[in-house]
Write a structure and sequence with these properties.
- Helices cover 32% and strands 21% of the residues.
- The chain is an alpha/beta fold and 199 residues long.
- Helix 5 (131-144) links the parallel strand 4 (123-129) and strand 5.
- The longest helix is centred in the first third of the chain and has 18 residues, at 43-60.
- The N and C termini lie far apart (34 Å).
């Protein structure tokens, strides 16, 4: 028998969100993950998917917030490095907010909660990098702030990781699958791609 998520057991709605009442958040779509110290598996198609979602969101007039990770100078995501820059496909447009963070959770020590409160919207679409790290941390925190979250799987990506017990390599595809499955249990509705988002 197919197992059920906690959301299913609670009778929570399984339908994806509508752009008309949602805030789109793009997390750490930065060059560090493209051609920097932490290149991700599948980052180029994920950025293309982010670009498609941004185009739809802008057309619909949905608020868009870009999260940009700031690391230490000279290190990964250092503000003095090329890796800090937002990748071309996800470049902010017009007056779209850019909020810097220093921790995986985009709410921690930032103005994100206040910015979201100003929109009056209680639903989020999360995209960006890495799936198992900052996307997951932000989705888990969003529930504490009273938000309902949708994650576009094709607009996220991650990397190979070492198994802490065996030191064997856990392929990025497996890390991605497991992260999305864990989030779908309680913290987010997972949709395959931008086409599943409703206007």
């Amino acid at each position: 028998m197919r197992p059920k998520t906690l959301l299913e057991l609670a009778g929570a709605p399984a339908s994806p969100t509508h752009l008309s009442d949602t805030v789109v958040i793009v997390i750490d779509a930065q060059r560090e993950y493209v051609d920097g110290k932490l290149p991700l598996v599948g980052v180029t198609p994920a950025l293309d998917e982010i670009g498609r979602l941004l185009a739809r969101a802008r057309k619909a007039g949905a608020p868009i917030i870009h999260i940009q990770h700031r690391g230490r100078p000279g290190g990964a995501f250092g503000p003095d490095t090329a890796g800090f820059a937002i990748a071309d496909a996800a470049t902010p447009a017009g007056t779209e907010a850019v909020i810097e963070k220093g921790l995986p959770n985009s709410f921690a020590g930032t103005t994100l909660a206040a910015a979201l409160a100003n929109t009056g919207r209680k639903q989020l679409i999360l995209t960006g990098f890495m799936t198992h790290m900052c996307v997951e941390a932000t989705a888990r925190a969003a529930i504490d702030h009273g938000f309902r979250t949708t994650i576009v799987a094709a607009a996220t990506a991650t990397r190979d990781l070492p198994d802490p017990l065996t030191q064997e390599t856990v392929p990025a595809a497996e890390v991605q699958r497991n992260a999305l499955a864990a989030l779908a249990d309680r913290f987010a509705t997972i949709v395959p791609n931008t086409g599943a988002i409703l206007d």
